[in-house]
Amino acid sequence: MSDSATGGNGRGRGQQPHGRSSGQSGSQPGGQGARGGSRRNAQGRERNRGPQRSFTESAPSQRTRRADPARLVAFEVLRAVAAEDAYANLVLPARIRHHGLDKRDAGFATELSYGALRGQGTYDAILARCVDRPLDQLDPAILDALRIGAHQLLAMRVPAHAALDQTVGLARAVIGAGPSALINAVLRKVSARTLEEWLDLLLSTETDATAIASIRYAHPEWIVRALRQSLVAHGRTAAEIDELLEADNAAPVVNLVALPGVGSLDEALEGGATPGELVEGSALSSGGDLGRLASVRDGSTRVQDVGSQLVARAMAAVNLGGDGGGNPSQNPGGEPDWPRDQGSEGPGERWLDLCAGPGGKAALLGALARQRGAHLLANEFAPHRAKLVRQALSAVPHDAWEVRTGDGRDIGAEQPESFDRVLVDVPCTGLGALRRRPESRWRRTPKDLVDLGPLQRQLLNSALDAVKPGGVVAYVTCSPHPAETTAVVSDALRKREDLELLDAGAALDGVSLTGDLGAGHELTAQLWPHVHHTDAMFLALIHKKA
What we know:
CATH architecture of the largest domain: 3-Layer(aba) Sandwich
Helix content: 40-55%
CATH superfamily of the largest domain: Vaccinia Virus protein VP39
CATH class of the largest domain: Alpha Beta
Structural class: alpha/beta
Mean pLDDT: 87
């Protein structure tokens, strides 16, 4: 176990580094103290300071000179995100395993990595007040180290001396002694105020509500405007924007799903996970290295946001028999009678996951298809992502699924009217998953909305061509933006006369444990982090008339 697991890094503890108190001078070589004739340290280096100064934890000769493993993991994650355009959720587990972190250190590294990435905009605004040059003139590695230090000082229960000492030690080990002096000086300025005091200073002359929210909640201004517009478009109020942004910044609970008929949550529950409250077969975990669970390693239990679980189950549960016209059957009260546990005509059905990579929803659909005697075709355009889809589906018996590598826009023409159920989870900006992908808020631009629109429409049109008359297409995004959700669906409905919307809100209620998610609006459905504690998943169920 590293000393970071025993308190040597000062995480949440009050002791001074290396056992020294801040006022302790220590003895010098040759038996002379700080006021003696020699001012050399234990390494023989002479300090160019007057006799009134004593050694403290801030003195370079006493400061940590190595990288604490948990902080090193966070630094490596931020470097990969910035330099290699990597995704934190993919890099972090690999670095945790590489450095052999235990559960406690893995949790610390996770919070530090995600927290520094989430708060980047706010921390950069603070750092800009403490550095004597524009931040874009700093070496990127130095800026990442400063962000890591700022998050510890302003948003974690780490004593200031430990945050400074360990961050400077990290910089000395991986960047160099010269930059570490700059980092020490800047972080001391940062530590002079609390986060709220910094925010009061930054916002003291700001009057624009969007700019204020952008700095306070660390979201680019265009995303603040986009999410406010999204709330209104889906039947909520713009006044909820602060709650939504705050929910984006909360560390998300890890959601697990046991593949139906294949996996079990017993091992996860015995390890401290709790049963999920929204959907059958789910659990909530406090995190750690879930790869230690055998059921996760063999793929029968998977990490998957509960919003993704709900939309996949909703598509699988649509009753395609219904009233004879392909509509959901009606109960005496006039509400759609959505089956909770199973779909209707499962045996012999063909299902299609049009954009299957990296395979989370495909694995759940594959397990559901097997239970019902259906067969799933999982399509993915990129070969490396198609490989991930095969890995995700590997826990499901192979007679229930197959993987196709190819352009989803071609399937509608190549296999017209061939599938009973089609899931088209289109590439999108991911504005609904910012809490799980903290780097995305700084990568995405308004141009992405424009660029992705044509592709989203082409994929949906292909899905509509591929579905049989009487079948259903589930159009799904992990973005609530109307340009990626309702506008795309409306365009498809306007151009064709053989389509109609089913009640997606009722469908989600039907597969939820609560039965009253309240996600529906004008027959489409939108989940929200601040309301449902899920990613902001959008669902439209489009029925092709028989």
